[in-house]
Design a protein that fits this description.
Elements (H helix, E strand, L loop, with lengths): L19 H4 L1 E2 L3 E3 L4 H11 L3 E5 L5 E6 H9 L9 H4 L13 H11 L3 E5 L5 E6 L3
Parallel strand pairs: 2-3
Antiparallel strand pairs: 1-6, 3-4, 5-6
Length: about 130
């Protein structure tokens, strides 16, 4: 099981750019889909982040999971400490490319009702996260 791959966070939060690459944060914590919900929540707390990029066994990004989703799963009646991220992933929402325009990304986020998008390269590797400003 790959626990966590940390990368430093950039300071592009206030950047106004024309593409996603200009405004995204570098990929934060990346975890494997075999990680348990409890461990994922601990990683989030340690990294002081509200989401994790989830990767498959070959290291490709398969989505993003938010703290609220993990907390809801943990509070559910069917929860056990053996529940893995792959058991709860379902539809993790859309992905975006670093060459996507910011207008297109905002449109996608608004219509998908998400506040963060994984940014992936043409091979499916995570490059970063585009998150709504808070």
């Amino acid at each position: 099981m790959m626990l966590v791959q940390m990368q430093p966070r950039t300071t592009h939060a206030s950047a106004v750019g024309r593409t996603v690459a200009d405004a995204m944060d570098t990929a934060g914590p990346q975890v494997c889909d075999d990680m348990t919900v409890e461990v994922a929540l601990s990683v989030m707390a340690s990294a002081r982040t509200g989401h994790l990029l989830v990767c498959d066994d070959s290291g490709l990004c398969i989505g993003l999971v938010a703290h609220a989703r993990l907390a809801a799963v943990r509070e559910g009646s069917a929860y056990s400490d053996r529940v893995q991220l792959r058991d709860i992933l379902g539809d993790l929402g859309p992905f975006t490319s670093p060459v996507t325009t910011m207008a297109e990304a905002r449109h996608m986020m608004r219509h998908s009702d998400v506040d963060a998008l994984p940014v992936v390269d043409e091979h499916g590797s995570a490059l970063g996260v585009l998150a709504l400003a808070r």
